[in-house]
Amino acid sequence: MEEIKSGGQCRFATTDEFLEIVEKVSSRELIGSGKFISGRQSLPVLKTKIENGFLYLEWKIENNLPFSVPVEVKLGDEIIKVEMRDGAGSLEIPEGVEPGIDPNKWITMADVEIIKN
Question: Is position 50 within any domain?
Answer without folding.
Answer: yes
